[in-house]
Hints:
Low-confidence stretches: 1-44
Strand order of the largest sheet: 2-1-4-5-6-7-3
Distance between the termini: 34 Å
Largest sheet: 7 strands, mixed
Structural class: alpha+beta
Amino acid sequence: MPHMAGRYHVHHVHSKGQAPHHEAAKGQAAQVAATDSIDRQGGQNMPTSLEEQNMETIRRWNDDGWNGRNIDVAWEVISPDMQVHGAGGQQVSMGPEGLIQLITTWRTAFPDGQMSIDDLFAEGDTVVIRNTWRGTQTGEFYGIPPSGKWIEISSIGIDRVVDGKVVEGWGELNMLGAMQQMGALPPSFGSE
Length: 192
């Protein structure tokens, strides 16, 4: 990670039952096993109360919205004026409706999908999450017919949280890797 000035909190979230590329990982929800906090400048600092609350907003969106299939939680944690600045090439409308549509797209294509939190940290009102989506593609996904293949997609999201609601978000995900795993693109480029 690049060096950042000022206090920088990192929370490493380890998941139980995550066995990449193994049949046993299918359908298992991520279970938080441990959370560590370190300061980038070497000292031990715990996040402020505000940072903890902001991280909890993102955890709730992940656990209840994505994994718990409670898309109505979007109305509680997403600002009606939320601006989406990037979503790995996906077109996402603003506000709760846009995020509900996003989850619906993914849930339709990957009904058994689960999102694990790999890292979660905050600095003030900004929360960064690194996560992995795992599931079987049994429905159409952005024009790609069902492949029946198990996929894993890593992503990084940066969200600004104000008064318990996400007001702004940036996201990048490995859509190229997803397309390759679904068979829509060759497994590698440049090989003959």
